[in-house]
Amino acid sequence: MPKICFTASETEVAQSAEARLVARYGSCPIGEAEVIVALGGDGFMLHTLHSTGAKDVPVYGMNCGTIGFLMNEYDEEGLRERLAEAEEEVVNPLAMRAESVDGTKHSALAINEVSLLRAGPQAAKLRITIDGKVRMEELVCDGALISTPAGSTAYNYSAHGPILPIGAEVLALTPMAAFRPRRWRGALLPKTAKVRFDVLDAAKRPVMADADGRSARDILWVEVRSEPAVRHRILFDPGHGLEERLTREQFV
Fold it and tell me: Catalytic residue numbers?
């Protein structure tokens, strides 16, 4: 059976679960692990994937949080059997590059989405360029985001963006509270697209950028593209993988 490394969020529920599971199954250092079992919610799962992505080790999450879209049901029984039968999904993240007004450069990876949000009382003004061609000279809005299929049921869905099948070679470009053009609902882009947002009037209408919780403020521009060289391996119980979950969300 694979060598297991247990990791848990800081909540009391997750910490208690980790103690019980380690006592029952044992745990090895993360550098020796053949599978990582993450205990917490979706936020902790994203943290675990980001922090262990370079190790090319699959991550099996068990929900000790609230929503748990990326997690499996928590059950202490038969864990080794569940790991042996688990199905693997491979997710490529988004790569974000950005520059702040003061010249600071930022870079980050995002499994769910990269979002731009107004950081002041006035709406943001953004110019959108796709693969070097300006597609929208001015979008007046509270913000905009680029979502992967894996993240399409998260912030993207709350902003009325589309749910994307996990195997779809597309990204969702979704505005938040678009004022002009009125009622613009966004666009579907090929996974290979390179998207650039330029912030218009950044001094008067400041904008922040966020990649899965890692934020940069007072942004001048942001570039986003898929990063196929990075692979996050996520394990799910049979019949409960991302494809099934994404489909089920559309019929709730």
Answer: 42
Determine contact, residues 145/155, Cβ cutoff 8 Å.
yes
Q: What is the pLDDT of residues 111-165, one digit of tens each?
A: 999 999 999 999 999 999 999 999 999 999 999 999 999 999 899 999 999 999 8
Residue with tokens 């208690």: 16
> Cis before residue 181, ω within 30 degrees of 0?
yes
Q: Which domains does the chain have, with CATH numbers?
A: 4-91+231-249 (3.40.50.10330), 94-226 (2.60.200.30)
Whether the Cβ atoms of residue 18 and residue 11 lie closer than 8 Å to each other: no
Distance of alpha carbon 164 from alpha carbon 184, whole angstroms: 19
Rg (CA), the chain: 19
Other Cβ atoms closer than 10 A to 1? 11
Tens of pLDDT, residues 198-228: 999 999 999 999 999 999 999 999 999 999 9
Report DSSP letters for 84-115, one per residue: HHPEEEEEPPEEEEEEETTS-EEEEEESSEEE
Q: Is the pLDDT of residue 183 over 90?
A: no
Determine the Cα–Cα distance for residues 31 and 47; give it in Å rounded to an integer: 17
